Amino acid sequence: MNSSPRSTPASIPDDASSGAPRDARRPGAHASGPHTGSSPARPRKDGSRPAEPHAGRNPAEPPASGAGPARPHAAWLPEAAFAAVGRRRVAIRGDGALVGTVAAEVATATATHGGSFTRLESGSGVFDADLVLTIAEDDADPQAPSSLAAAPHAASVDHTISGDHAISGRGNASTARNGVVATDGVVDGRDTTGEEDDESFRVSREDGAVVVEAACDRGLLYGFFHVVRLGEAAFSGPDLVERHAPATALRMLDHWDNVAVHEVMGQVERGYSGGSIFYDHGRVRTDLSRVEAYARLLASTGVNRVAINNVNVHAREARLLTDDLPHVARIAAAFRPWGIRVHLSVSFASPITLGGLGTSDPLDPAVARWWREAADRVWAEIPDFGGFVVKADSEGQPGPFAYGRDHADGANMLAEAVAPHGGLVHWRAFVYDHRQDWRDRSTDRARAAHDHFAPLDGRFAENVIVQVKYGPMDFQVREPVSPVIAAMPDTRVALELQVTQEYTGQQKHAVYLGRQWSEVLTFDFAGPDGDRAALPPTSVAGIVARSGGIVAVSNVGDDEFWTGHPLAQANLYAYGRLAWNPAADPTALLDEWIALTFPGAPADVVHTLHEVLDESWETYERYTSPLGVGFMVRPGHHYGPDVDGYEYTPWGTYHFADRDGIGVDRTVATGTGYAGLYPQPWASVYESLETCPDELLLFFHHVPYTHVLHSGKTVIQHIYDTHFDGVERVERFAAAWDGVAAALSDDGGHTGPGHAPRPGDTAHAGADTAGADDGRAGPGRTTPAGAGSGARLAARVSERLAEQLRSAIEWRDQVNTYFYRKSGIPDEQGRTIF
Ligand code: GCV
């Protein structure tokens, strides 16, 4: 939500000229053709084997000269993360653009870590290697050792549920020789939309030799990163055969980046990580190396689509669709080697503002023609372009309402324009009245998306995806799951999450959101008693995975650590991994991120990272707005406490606290009726004070401060206790970090940027040198190039934790004081309230 004057697109000054010349294409490091290979040889323990030639460069690395601005942090792909693969004899077979990407990765890894790399022609038969990455071929030799055919195929996978996006259970163990067929909660490999290449892959291990086989090159890319994630574990343990595939074909990140710096919202709306990696003060960046590095990070988590500009499309940004297409094409080229397709947010008023028409009425033939021609131009320039994202009739953005049309009219007109190209229209359901009268208690913003969209179910074209925020309000720390997700069975519905921490601490507070997203994805509209891990078709993941997919607003900028708060990288990582597999355990994903990002870190560092992040979402909830009531933030920028900040505004976000009680009555019996928008049993669960979960009580009910929660505490005592406890938790986090920060500060290695070894990098020179992977600088070691990155990371986290503590104390004292003064009820424990 936004209290800034949100102007119409045309009113924003267009202060920019277009960007770099059209021919300023940066040759993609991974588009340079296949590696010619080398003869397979086992890595030597002393790491002395000559380095293999590189086929490409890790885009997170600086040019060899080391010139240029500070290198971006390697995030979860530091060199050490590739040690297990890089030490081995790796063979790659198959064609396809992304096979070249994998080959380049392997070439770099083996050159760095002392392994070897062979690029085989399609059709080559038996070969000897520790890791084979291959596109499936029909004529594989079933007897071949250490080849794809060496490991028997899993004959079947038993699905715990059925349906297009069935989550697989344990495979049929009898089909694997000497071992098990293991699956990890992944899904069956069928493409759920028919629009994507098959992204699945199959991994088998026999006697420590691993084969990754995929039908398409995209699957091979994902299979490669799967092995990287597993590290040494990929090559040890019993023989197995696994099949992996994403739960949904559409796994997308939206950027709210502006081309021109917006007078209120800046370069990136709700961005907390510096500038944009795409744009710089009115221009598309000439150097897109940062975009390439980003694409690589995303691909390693499974993200396959990115919308590159803000859904609030101002005048300068609107021109991405026309004048700037060559630059959009450059951005698409940076993403392409990583299997990621680019989308644009477009303004519904474009036929007027760009086309000079007098209307953007979706039923006007001239308007439809304008969009068709615009789409034709886009796809002519970018043949694999993904489609358009539209925020219409929302927070001042233009839309079909101006012409008496509805959202289906608007979306379908655009859908028709992009359909010949296989394009998609992501039409956002974030539609509400932001000019509400706060005196009017009958209007409920939470109802708005449902009231607008549910009646349109079945009317949207096949290539329209209605994109729904996870909650009915706006990315609060706690909201019920939006009922719209279940209300449109005949519509493709995507879930929208927010990785950028607009309402969850703005990347100043360490808040790991994986647990929140997991709760949302596993929420079952059929009722609370199901097996969450099974993700039935009635779960959020089950519904959106079928055809709409999962979308989130990115948290990345041109900051050295990508995300402002270095630990906010965990959110970007977990998002991609959950979009691939919504059944994944978010805590396990956190540990996965820690292990990859801080390879070889001492146990106390690992422990502290886990401690600080694991329940940080719940901690943030404890010291901010209580029991699901939401907001209480400073209007406009949304950072820090302001209990009444939105109470008398037109934005529809109220808590209705008075001297007796607090909360919004959204019951059917006496309130706005919102609770009745859920299918049973949830409608009844939320309607009743007896059954409404504590954490959502004030979202659904207005209760006295003395109301006793299921926890046994009164509402007022809960508010006091959680706010004191929340701050104490942050104090513990900060102290724990202080205890380990020095260990990181001494270390330029495991937190440093990924870079190929250079003279002087002795700690990295031999991958098999004892202790080299942990990168810890110690006696006799030469500090690697990039020293100081660990120190900078540690310092950044310390600085952020200090701010988090300051802010949490402010939240605690303002919220407690506010409710003490309203209610007059003292804290049972007599703690300080002002
Ligand atoms: C891009 C909230 C944010 C806005 C954002 C909007 C949206 O209201 O505060 O900055 O606009 O959501 O999702 O469109």
Automatic annotation (TrEMBL):
Signal peptide feature range: none
Low complexity compositional bias, start-end: 63-72, 759-772, 779-791
Domain of life: Bacteria
Pfam families for the chain: Glyco_hydro_67C, Glyco_hydro_67M
Comp. bias intervals (Basic and acidic residues): 43-55
Positions of the Glycosyl hydrolase family 67 catalytic domain: 242-562
Domain Glycosyl hydrolase family 67 C-terminal: start-end pairs: 563-745, 795-831
Protein name, per record: Alpha-glucuronidase
Biased composition (Polar residues): 1-10
Cited SUPFAM superfamilies: (Trans)glycosidases (SSF51445)
Region (Disordered): 1-72, 746-791
